[in-house]
Design a protein that fits this description.
Elements lengths: L1 H11 L7 E3 L7 E2 L1 H5 L8 E2 H4 L4 H4 L2 E3 L4 E7 L2 E6 L4 E4 L2 E3 L3 E3 L14 H10 L5 E5 L3 H12 L3 E5 L7 H4 L1 H4 L3 H6 L3 E3 L4 E5 L2 E4 L4 E3 L2 E4 L3 E3 L16 E3 L10 E3 L4 E5 L3 E4 L3 H6 L1 H8 L12 E6 L2 E7 L5 E6 L6 E7 L2 E8 L2 H11 L6 E2 L1 H4 L10 E2 L1
Parallel strand pairs: 1-4, 8-19, 10-11, 10-16, 11-12, 18-20
Antiparallel strand pairs: 2-3, 5-6, 6-7, 9-17, 13-14, 14-15, 20-21, 22-23, 23-26, 24-25, 25-26, 27-28
Bound molecules: flavin-adenine dinucleotide.
Flavin-adenine dinucleotide binds next to helix 1, helix 2, helix 10 and strand 22.
Length: 390
């Protein structure tokens, strides 16, 4: 996504030089979110050439989709890349858009993961009504797959090491609100269940309990696919390449965008990649910077969406710290929780309230973060805009 969008934005900004795109999967770019949300209903990848109307073959001079880069060398006049097929490429600059990969702890080889179209095909081929599926991890992808598999008649168990689903993403208090969604979807959720052993016929958790299964899915997170860059450019302990607001790394001639980057955001500080909207949006300012053009001052807020067990969740900005102000009743139905830090709106988690999605996107997308009156903001009958003060 980020690589294709960078090509498209460079051409849109008037770049007529030579462009090469490298890939590691041997197929043209496709959209990953449907891999989990439409795991069983969509058997062909959602090709980005159709979704975005942009084709790598129209945009790049050289398209090498099965020649991953293995090494990056920064030279006095640009970069040199060593490819897996033994070739070497020289260029004036490189944009890193190598994304991330699913984490699978050592010893868990019997578990499947879900990151690529090939992974989705493999997982889909194992699922059928009555099949016992154990999912390790109640994060974004664990929850999404649990929902679609249970709806299709699989017997789904989710094992989560933390005290609540989505604990890393939302914190325990907000994550716990999704527990009832699992129950309503007919999924058996076990919290504080730390998996210690994974086999082809099931898993065992600390304390000794076993969960038999025909299929085990490891959904414990993703990590930037940047191991091949070790020693070539500075990286964070998380594996992200730190970049400024335009996508420039600390090394001249090297930029990074999408999942593999941690991008400086004027309002929110460093934002680690890992979400679709950044891969879609951030290539535009990057291309404009490369072409020496100005970008609009206001940046959109970091945004994540997910379809969890029949519910829509949207997360904007920073979820904590701060005062939590909730609109709606999380025990009953749709809700929005705003994070207000010292009077300033810094983030929001929105469950099934599309109007608040629009309002929050606008409020957090301005040049400055707005001040909100918490009492008015907590009244779900008023539009959020009327809670802005000053
Ligand atoms: C199942 C699933 C569901 C998701 N759902 C959501 C969602 O609901 N909401 C959301 O916000 N985000 C979601 N995401 C995350 C979202 O898809 C990513 O943030 C987005 O794809 C990132 O785009 P990217 O271009 O940075 O990386 P990628 O899409 O990972 O693309 C990187 C490409 O680089 C290639 N590559 C890697 N290493 C090399 C190399 N050394 N040389 C050459 N090529 C290389 C890879 O093969 C890959 O094709 C989901 C992800 C998955 C897997």
């Amino acid at each position: 996504m980020a690589g294709l969008r960078t090509l498209a934005e460079l051409r849109a900004a008037g770049y007529d030089g030579h462009l090469t795109i490298l890939g590691a999967e041997g197929v043209p770019p496709y959209d990953r979110p449907p891999l989990s949300k439409e795991l069983l209903s969509r058997t062909e990848p959602a090709w980005l050439s159709a979704e975005l109307g942009a084709d790598v073959h129209d945009l790049a001079d050289d398209v090498l989709l099965d020649s991953p880069a293995r090494r990056l060398l920064v030279t006095d006049d640009g970069v040199r890349l060593a490819l897996s097929d033994g070739r070497e490429l020289e260029a004036d600059g490189a944009v890193l858009a190598c994304g991330s990969h699913a984490v699978r702890p050592a010893g868990w080889e019997a578990a499947l993961t879900l990151h690529t179209a090939a992974d989705a095909e493999q997982l889909r081929s194992h699922l059928a009504p009555g099949v016992r599926l154990v999912i390790i991890g109640a994060g974004w992808i664990g929850g999404e797959v649990a929902g679609v598999a249970a709806a299709a008649g699989c017997e789904v168990t989710v094992l989560e090491a933390g005290p609540a689903p989505l604990v890393r993403q939302l914190g325990a208090e907000l994550g716990a609100r999704t527990v009832r969604w699992y129950a309503e979807a007919g999924v058996a959720l076990h919290l504080d269940a730390r998996v210690v052993d994974v086999a082809t016929d099931g898993v065992r958790v600390a304390g000794g309990r076993s969960f038999p299964a025909e299929v085990v899915l490891c959904a414990v997170g993703a990590r930037p696919a940047t191991d091949w860059l070790t020693g070539s450019i500075p990286m964070l302990p998380t594996g992200h390449v730190p970049v400024d607001g335009a996508g420039a790394s600390d090394v001249p001639g090297v930029w990074a965008v999408g999942d593999c980057a941690a991008r400086e955001n004027a309002k929110f500080g460093p934002v680690p990649g890992g979400h679709w909207s950044a891969a879609l949006i951030d290539p535009a300012p990057l291309a404009r910077e490369l072409m020496g053009l100005d970008s609009p001052v206001a940046e959109p807020a970091p945004y994540v969406y997910s379809a969890q067990l029949g519910h829509n969740l949207a997360v904007f900005g920073r979820v904590s710290p701060g005062e939590l102000v909730t609109r709606g009743d999380p025990a009953e139905g749709p809700w929005t929780t705003l994070t207000i830090d010292d009077g300033v709106l810094t983030g929001a988690v929105i469950a099934d309230r599309p109007r608040d999605v629009t309002a929050v996107r606008k409020l957090l997308g301005g040049a400055e973060l707005p001040r909100l009156d918490p009492r008015t903001a907590g009244d779900e009958s008023v539009n959020l805009r009327s809670a802005v003060v000053g």
